[in-house]
Amino acid sequence: MKRLIALLLVVALVAPAAASAHATLKQEFPGFQQELQTAPKFVLLKFDQFVQLPYVEVLNNKGRNFAEQAVASGLDVRAKVRPLPTGQYTIRWHALSADGHVVSGVWTFGVRVRAAPPTEAYGASGPSRTEDVVRWLYFAALATMIGALGFRLLLLRGLEVPPALEKRLFLLAGAGVVGVLEVGILAFLLRCEDVLQLPFGKFLYGDLTPIANGTRYGRTFVVMTLGFAFVSAFIYLAWLLERTVVLVPAFVLALAFAAGLSLSGHDAVDPGSSWKSELADYVHLSAASLWIGGLVALVVAVWPAAPALRRTVLARFSRFATVLVALVLAAGTYLAIVRLPAFHDLWRYGYGQVLLVKICLVAVAVAWGGVHKFFPRARVFRSIAGETLVGIAVLLAAAILTDSKPPPQPTPSSSTTRAAYAGAVGASSWRK
Questions:
Q1: What is the full DSSP assignment across 85-102?
Q2: What pLDDT was estimated at residue 347?
Q3: Do 32 and 135 sit in the same domain of this protein?
Q4: 312 and 344: one domain?
Q5: Each residue's pLDDT tens digit, 351-380
Q6: Number of CB atoms found within 10 A of residue 387's CB
Q7: Is 5 part of any domain?
Q8: Does residue 192 sit in the same domain as residue 240?
């Protein structure tokens, strides 16, 4: 059976994909996110084949269009532009390709100012509730993958693992990495759809290059997708060859490429960010994934498939989880100080309010975990299952927090207030 699946995968990889026949944008002026010192007098788009019925808009931040009628000539489309004042601008275009499909795209540029990223182009509405749910599923898949791999390699080390438990952990890791790949692609497409502002039928032929190549988010997405594809290959080989040692590179790569989320999020690009905030975010993410993913592994794999190992594994996980929770709390406290200029931002801004909910959920999960230690006669499985559900709710809060905008950073004159807030949070953390 395993050889048959391997053969099918090889055939799928070797089979050629159908070539796209619609027009592709090859060159443009102004360039993607280009900062011009002189306002352009025209917009130029060069395609690899003839297009018809072109339409070009040059929009300022208030939605005013400065472009005149676009004209197609050969492989070029040109539109004159009325005088542009200093500011950021969005170019939106679409044209009828020779194959009958409408191709579209968007990019940004600036006149004597830095251009906004395409994800902040005029017309983009920002993250939606659908994107929050998709990101939640992504975090859940990431935690499941990392948690299952870490559980097998770290907590079951030196133990005789029953085949049923081994199989369940492989299924968890495999489902997690497939979820990361598929849900990650969906999240990227949803973000691109918001930027392009197109119905799904036209979005299929949209030009995603400015987002994929022109933003840190897009470049990170491409690298992470390729990296997790390698992780899936190692997990598959470990299952096919029945060699647990092959899971080691899968685990290392999974942790390494998870850093992409920290390199493209708030703690990497927002004002006040630094390598320290990126590192803290990575520690926070990795520790939370191992903790929550480990809870999932306990509930789904260990408890039903290895009754004889329950006591030993639970004792090991309790010690491991204590370290992980400590890392989550320490990194989270530091990030809260960096992101929130003042203590009252916790309830004055949406970002702070979501953070408060997340803090409360983490506190509930930690308290719930203490039940296993202080009340050994409690119904352990139900307790762990409840803690797992709370952990998954933490991931939902994290997903919403990731798509929320932090409060504006203070000016240098308000550094005293910031120092007082940092002291208050530090003292509060110490008392706990």
A1: -SEEEEEEEEEEETTSPE
A2: 76
A3: no
A4: yes
A5: 778 888 888 888 887 777 666 665 555 566
A6: 25
A7: no
A8: yes
Same-domain pairing of 257 and 360: yes
Peptide bond into 410 cis (omega under 30): no
Residues 95 and 151 in one domain: no
pLDDT lower than 70: segments of the chain: 1-21, 99, 125-127, 199-202, 204, 266-272, 369-380, 409-432
- Determine contact, residues 25/46, Cβ cutoff 8 Å: yes
Amino acid letter for position 409: Q
Instruction: Answer yes or no: is 192 within a domain.
Output: yes
Could you tell me if residue 311 is inside a domain? yes
Look up residue 118 and give its two tokens. 């395409």
Same domain, 233 and 381: yes
DSSP string, 112-135: SSPPPPGGG-TT-----HHHHHHH
Look at the chain and count its residues: 432
How far CA 388 is from CA of 68, 288, 298, 326, in Å, comes to 58, 12, 9, 18
- Among the candidates 120, 141, 170, a domain finishes at 120
Given the DSSP bridges, would you call strands 87-97 and 102-111 parallel, antiparallel or unpaired? antiparallel
Cβ atoms within 10 Å, residue 415: 11
DSSP string covering 205-219, please?
TEE-HHHHTTSHHHH
Residue at 104 is within a domain:
yes
Closest CA to 169 of 300, 2, 287, 288: 300
* Domain's final residue, options 103, 120, 137: 120
Work out the number of other CB atoms within 10 angstroms of the CB of residue 34: 15
Q: Helix crossing, 129-150 with 163-196: angle to 10°?
A: 150
Quote the number of domains for the chain.
2
Please tell me the distance from the alpha carbon of residue 32 to that of residue 232, in angstroms, as a whole number.
34
| Number of other residues whose CB lies within 10 A of the CB of residue 36 | 17
148 and 93 inside one domain: no
Reduced to 3 states (helix: H, G, I; strand: E, B; else coil), residue 80 is strand
123-144 burial, b for 16+ CB within 10 Å, e for fewer?
ebeebeeebbebbbbbbbbbbb
Q: Cβ distance 70 to 78 under 8 Å?
A: yes
Distance between CA 299 and CA 380 in Å, rounded?
10
Q: Can you give the pTM of this predicted structure?
A: 0.74
Residue 95 CB-density burial (10 A; 0-12 exposed, 13-18 middle, 19+ buried): buried
How many alpha carbons lie under 13 Å from residue 362 in its C-beta half-sphere?
A: 24
Predicted confidence at residue 138, as pLDDT, reads 93
Same-domain status, 208 and 356 = yes
- Per the structure, the complete domain to which residue 83 belongs is given by 25-120
